[in-house]
Every structure is written in C-alpha cells, then in structure tokens.
Design brief:
12 helices; globular; mainly alpha
Length: 326
C-alpha cells in the first residue's frame, strides 16, 4: 500500500512566514521583506489543502466542505475580534464617541474584516470570500482562465497601488480579489501535483528571491512586487515536492494559523511593556534596532506562551471553545 504523501515543509514554511509577518508589523529588518511572501503563500496553501479534499467529493460533499471551511475561518475571525474588542472600545472612547468614527469602524469590519486595532483581520474575511469566488467560478470556467483572471487582478494592483496610493478600497492590496490568483494556483497544484514540473526550480528560486529583494529595496511596501508571483509559485512547488517530514506536523499547522491573528494583541502588549520599561512611547518606524528587536522577541514569546497555554486549557471540557482561536 502506498504511503500517504506528507506536506510538512509547507506547514513549516507557513510558521516561518507567519513570524516574518509579525516582523513586518514591527519593522524588523530583513523580516519586513521576507514576510511579504507570507500572505500569497498562505492563500496558495489554503487552496492546495482545500482542493485536495474538494475534488474528491460529490456536489453535496463539496457544498458541505465549503461551508465547513467558511464557518471555521469565520469563527476564528469572530474569536479574535472579541479578544481585540477592548482596544476597539478604547479607540471609540478616545474619540469621544463620535458616531461617524463608530460607523466607520463597523463598515471596515463588515466589508473588509479590518479595523485599526485588528488590521490583519482582512486576511480571514478575504479567505472566506475568495474561496467562495473561486469555487463558484470553477463551476463555469476552466481553471486556467481563473488563474489568468487572478493574474490580471494582481498585476493591476501592482500598477494601481503605487500610482494612486490606494487606501482600503476594492483596489487595495487588502481585498478578497487578491486571493483569486493564489487560491487558484493552490487548486492547480492540488490537481496536477504529479504533472507539474519546474526545471531548475532551486536556482530559479534564489534568482527570484534576489529579484524580489531588489524590488523591495527600490519600492518597499508601496508596491506588490512583480517577482513575488513567481517566487511564491516556485517556493510552493519546492515545498510540495519536498520529502521533508517532522513530528507533530498538525500542531505546526495550528501554530501558523494561531500566529497570524494573535500577533495584533501580542504586539500591543509588548509595546505597552517596553514603553513602560524605557519610560517613553515606542514607534517602530523611529525606534532603534535594540528596541525593535527586544519588542519583537517579547512579542514572539507572548505568542508562543499563550499558544501553549491555550492548547493545555482546551483539554478542559468547559474551555473547548478556545479551539476557535486556531
């Protein structure tokens, strides 16, 4: 009997990239570049694992699988919105309960999953809408055309964002439209895993990595780097084809899921601690490397400690609801 193929390297890379995304939000040198690979890679991984199961189901099974996927992500989003709600209430309090600001909060929350105290929430909402869009498109359009559509959108964002300095809008990088390309690529890898061959993938990866670094150095976060598309494709291909294995890979997958939404509150707590230690406010764009790295390490410690505690607490029957945190 043929042994089941494992994809442990995908889960390991997800953890590394999730930590790098924390580095983006704390302006940690090097990580604020590497972390840019994270979101596209996460979407590709979501598409890959989802369609590995989806294509094996009949129509009713596919509907149920999509429903379960959306419900799981929605519960994750709700959990972390509740956790971050004290900061939201403080923002409303400091704004002296201005109704227009409160309406603005909820519009961002409903339409984009995004609020100032939980800006990374857009990723979770985009995952839901994106998966619905791709699965529905697959019923009437060939996968290659969906990939083409996603590519046009992604390249359009590359041009649109820096020129118009787009804020939070349907044309910004924080939108479900960005998921189409990477979810579709994940579907492609899931369906044609054995057929896909990328010649000289390893040297190509390092070439694209170098090009991406050059693009990032020139444009920084003002642009969705063009080389990023190819870089994610080759990186995912290498991870998928790898025979890398590790113990407790499922725990690694849950950890990568936990890091992304948990970072917001962990960063705020570390900033609060560090600002009290040095007796002045912390601005990651203006602070020195020592403060940035110290705050980053403290944030990572808080994330890992809280993850470990929640995993233990989940074993208590009355606290099973904590499973929605990851």
């Amino acid at each position: 009997m043929k042994s089941r193929k494992n994809y442990d390297l995908i889960d390991f890379i997800k953890v590394v990239l999730a930590l790098s995304i924390v580095g983006i939000h704390m302006n940690v040198p090097l990580l604020n570049w590497i972390g840019r690979i994270g979101v596209p890679f996460f979407f590709s991984a979501s598409g890959f694992f989802f369609f590995k199961k989806y294509d094996k189901e009949d129509s009713l099974g596919q509907i149920q699988l999509l429903k379960n996927y959306c419900l799981r992500i929605f519960r994750l989003w709700i959990f972390w919105i509740i956790v971050n709600s004290p900061w939201l209430l403080l923002d409303v309090w400091h704004s002296h309960f201005k109704m227009i600001l409160l309406i603005g909060f909820w519009l961002k929350l409903i339409l984009f999953g995004w609020i100032e105290v939980f800006p990374i929430g857009w990723f979770l909402i985009a995952s839901i809408f994106g998966m619905i869009i791709v699965t529905q498109l697959l019923k009437c359009v060939e996968l290659k055309y969906i990939i083409l559509l996603g590519l046009i959108i992604e390249v359009g964002l590359i041009i649109y964002n820096p020129i118009l300095d787009a804020g939070l809008s349907l044309g910004s990088s924080e939108t479900a439209l960005r998921t189409i390309l990477y979810l579709a690529l994940g579907c492609m890898f899931a369906r044609y895993e054995m057929k896909i061959k990328i010649p000289h993938a390893r040297p190509l990866f390092f070439i694209l990595l170098f090009l991406n670094f050059i693009e990032f150095s020139l444009f920084n976060e003002k642009i969705v780097n063009l080389s990023l598309i190819g870089l994610v494709i080759v990186l995912f291909y290498l991870a998928m084809k790898s025979g890398f294995s590790m113990q407790n890979a499922t725990n690694m997958r849950k950890l990568s899921t936990y890091i992304y939404p948990a970072q917001s509150i962990a960063i705020q707590l570390s900033v609060w601690v560090m600002s009290h230690l040095i007796h002045k406010p912390i601005d990651f764009m203006m602070s020195g490397l020592f403060i940035i790295f110290s705050s980053f390490i403290l944030t990572i410690v808080l994330i890992f400690v809280s993850y470990s505690l929640i995993r233990r607490m989940m074993k208590v029957s009355r606290l099973e609801w904590l499973k929605y945190s990851m």
